[in-house]
Amino acid sequence: MHYSNHRFHLLEDVQLLDEEQTTEKIERILDKVKGLGLVRAAIDLTSQHKSVSLLCISNDAMTIQARVTQLLLAEGIAVSDMVEVETFWGNEDMMHEIHAHTSPTPIKNAGKILNTAASVVIPMTIPMTIPMTIPMTILMTILMTILMTILMTILMTILMTILMTILMTILMTTLMTMVMRIIGLKRH
């Protein structure tokens, strides 16, 4: 089975309520993402580098990151644009041996895990809201139109050059043959 561990780093300048209230707020947020295959979560608000770590049964890292970031931002909890993602493969018989986050406040301890396979840091952009979707769609349409126009112009130029070279060669060969025949007929 495929698992992924997502570590969201809270921004250093984030203004948190007391640890207990912030933990409760984050737990309420995480209740909203159960549909994304959340197995276990750990919240670390005591260390210098505060973070939220989620273990999920999913291979759709971008959806998980976008949804969680959006919900955290909606509650005034800002996260870094770099999200650490570790992927795991394992079977259901193994216990939570490898949840890479140590936290004094682990929550939702149900589920099983696995053998580690890879670790990577994926840059995360702030998720688009509905008002941003329309301008981004327009911008992407304009950019794609410009790109396609440039590519088609280059392609057509290359094809026309090749075609014109072939046609000119055929025409010149035909004309030269005709001229040679005419010259040959006049000599006799």
SSE topology:
Layout (H helix, E strand, L loop, with lengths): L1 E9 L8 H13 L6 E7 L6 E6 L4 H14 L4 E11 L15 E3 L7 E9 L6 H58 L1
Antiparallel strand pairs: 1-3, 1-4, 2-3, 2-5, 4-6
Q: How would you explain this protein's 3D organization?
A:
This protein is of the alpha+beta class and 188 residues long. It folds into 2 domains: 2-127, ACT domain (Alpha-Beta Plaits); 129-188. 45% of the residues lie in helices and 24% in strands. It has 3 helices and 6 strands. Strands 5-2-3-1-4-6 form a 6-stranded antiparallel beta sheet, covered by helices on one side. A hairpin with a 6-residue loop joins β2 (38-44) and β3. The N and C termini lie far apart (91 Å).
H and E string: EHEEHEEEH
Strand content: 15-25%
CATH superfamily of the largest domain: ACT domain
* Number of DSSP E strands: 6
Helix content: 40-55%
- Integer tally of domains: 2
| CATH class division of the largest domain | Alpha Beta
**Please, what is the average pLDDT?**
74
Characterize the biggest β-sheet.
Answer: 6 strands, antiparallel
In CATH, the topology of the largest domain is named Alpha-Beta Plaits
Strand order of the largest sheet: 5-2-3-1-4-6
**Cα distance spanning the termini:** 91 Å
The secondary-structure class comes to alpha+beta
CATH arch. level architecture of the largest domain: 2-Layer Sandwich
* Cα shape: rod-shaped
